[in-house]
Amino acid sequence: MKLRKLIHLSLAFSIPCLLQAQQAKMNIGIEAGQLNFGISFKGRPVIMTSPLGMNIDNRLLGQEIKSTTANTTSEKYKTYAIEQKDGNIYYIDSWEFDNGVALRYRIPTNGPRCIYSEQTSYTFPSGTHVWYASGPFQYGWIQAYQEWNTDSIKNELLAPPATFLLPDGTYAAITEANLFNFHGAVLFGKENNRVQFGYVENKGHMETGIITGLPPAKFYHEAVCDVPWIVSPRKGENEIVTPWRVLMLADDLNGLVNNQIIAQVSDKPNPALFPKGKDTEWIKPGRSVFTWLVEGNDRLSVANHKKYVDGAAELGLQSVVVDDGWELWDKTEKNANGRSKWDFLKELVDYAKAKNVDIWVWRPSSPRSGNKTDIGLIDANERTDFMKKCAEIGVKGLKIDFFHTENLFTVNLMENILKDAAKAHLMVIFHGVNKPTGDNYTYPNLLAKEAVRGLETVGGENSWAPGPPWPYHNTVLPFTRWLAGPADYTPLNFRNFCPKSVSFTHQLASIYTFTSPMLIFAADMEDMLSCPGRMFIEEVPVVWDETKVLTESRIGELAAIARRKGDIWYLSVLNGETPYKGELNMSFLPKGTYRMTVASDEGSNYKKIVISNRKIKAGQKLKVDLLSGGGYLAKIEKL
Questions:
Q1: Which of 81, 246, 294, 581 is the most exposed place for a label (fewest CB within 10 A)?
Q2: Is residue 41 within 8 Å of residue 24, measured between CB atoms?
Q3: How many other C-beta atoms lie within 10 A of the C-beta of residue 476?
Q4: Which is nearest to 470 in space by CA: 443, 441, 497?
Q5: 295 touches 211 (CB < 8 A)
Q6: How much is the CA Rg of the chain, to the nearest whole Å?
Q7: How many Cβ atoms sit within 10 Å of the Cβ of residue 99?
Q8: Mean pLDDT for back-to-back runs of 10 residues, the chain (639 residues)
Q9: How far, in Å, CA of 616 to CA of 629, rounded?
């Protein structure tokens, strides 16, 4: 890297053990008046010279630089004061890890500033392969994953996290973390193998003046790039702080999936709201079911929800999510006799409590365009009153939907919802929302975000929810979207919302692949109760002790993942479009002999799950024969 001024973000130690301790390094420098950086991993370059900076108040902060001063907090964490020729100063915080790097900008100010764009970019070697979703995650149901070389992504929008495979075999992923009081970002494909951070807004919000929520249908997926927006410091602060721009690095998919940089750079929970962090008593991850995708005309009725409470109790599920429709129960329930929606909800909560099942309820974040009955949560008084009422009658969690943007207003709205929910001791999942950015580490009552093309979109593949074949889609997700955090995919269905291209065993295995602290099943209750693999539904953990990606995994082709809870391992395998016949490396197992309870496909029958038992020794290869879109699931217990 030929730089006129070179500022090393790592200290030049002469002690060999210190040189070996840090594997990812970032160099910042100035060339031709432009602030830039490069990144190496284990001594080999992975990001070539790339621009840094932001366009604020229509002035480029990465150019016309007078001086730079480095303040070393530690070997891995440093702050750089960047003084421009006009005397303005801003700061770059850099953080190096063994498996990646992160950086952010801090802009001193006592008032609002206008953000026009961002220059932060990553230039990959020619021939780098990339997998990415082509639409912003906040738009929910249009996540058409595709793969190209970075040589061919000019003018493409890449939803973070995008995953890259460099010619030397290094895996990389780019996303952002600690997104608060700032506009969420996407990536723009540029020429010369470069991706650049930037911002998009929904055209419907701009044209209607409605700043958040579901816009008119014709604007659902209309993104406008780099619209200027205004931000002010948080109350009591004198600077604007951007989210961390995160680059994860690994030698293999196992290292990528187990990357913890997002957790490490995220703000810690406020002890006043969460005295024990994620272990605060009222935060209880669990398995759930909802009736949105089930069959039957009465799927949203109180009676049907009681039926699902009964089934949840029988399966040992922790909760039932009452989806869109409950707020009209005073009008839709037979023999309402003047009872309010809250009366009906209290009846259901009490019924469920007697069976040791919790109730969650759905609510839109703001009124949907054209909907006359929605009540949103934008108004602070409405929000706190709603949450207080939910807590009073015993509701344990909220599913908040239809944000449809990650602009500054909506990012702040989400944080206010999480704060108010925490005060009422309510857990939350966000639907129709942006990708996770570590917000679940700062607010551990946030158990999941949708931000994924899940089973709700089955049937819309060639119309309103375009996307690639489901076997391909499902074998891309663990190595892209899930790198950012848990999703609300609503897995498991054996009827109309089971894609015809995947087998029932693939569906069953997906609940172990698409893991989440709030794991909501989409299947009809009768199907779960009668499923040959029912034991796998009854006992699937939602918080794991260890995860291993098997070496045979290939993005878009095969996702083979082993997870451990206590002394028990579970192996879930989702196959892509090409039938797979081969062996799987079971080296993740400690020494010993194990009993395997296996769910597999039978021949070419996509609708039959076969349960069998066998023994296997540690180190022994496991032979599998998988259909196109097939699956395999095993519980592995030491004898």
A1: 581
A2: yes
A3: 25
A4: 497
A5: no
A6: 25
A7: 18
A8: 32 32 86 92 97 96 89 89 92 97 97 98 98 82 88 95 98 98 97 97 93 92 93 96 98 98 98 98 98 94 98 98 96 95 98 98 94 93 98 98 96 98 98 96 97 94 89 98 97 97 98 98 98 98 98 98 98 98 96 98 96 96 98 98
A9: 25
CB neighbour burial string for 497-506, b if at least 16 within 10 angstroms, e if fewer: bbbebbbbbb
pLDDT for res 140: 61
What are the φ/ψ torsions at residue 584 (nearest 5 degrees)?
-115, 135
* Cα dist from 413 to 68, 115, 216, whole Å: 36, 19, 21
CB 327 within 8 A of CB 373: yes
How far is CA 400 from each of CA 209, 322, 383, rounded to the nearest angstrom?
A: 22, 12, 11
Quick check: 225 and 189 in contact, CB under 8 A? no
3 state DSSP class of 559 = strand
The structure tokens 């498996």 sit at 99
Strand 397-401 relative to strand 358-364, pairing: parallel
286, 317 contact by CB (below 8 A) = yes
What share of the chain in percent tops pLDDT 90?
A: 88
d(CA 414, CA 419): 9
Is 419 strand, coil or helix? helix
pLDDT in tens, 558-589: 999 999 999 999 999 999 999 999 999 999 99
What pLDDT does 593 receive? Answer: 97
Paired tokens of 157: 């929008």
Best CA proximity match to 253, nearest among 174, 172, 167 = 172
CA distances, 4 to each of 28, 50, 69, 87 (Å)? 11, 14, 16, 21
For the chain, the distance separating the N- and C-terminal CA atoms, rounded to the nearest angstrom, is: 56
Amino acid of residue 436: P
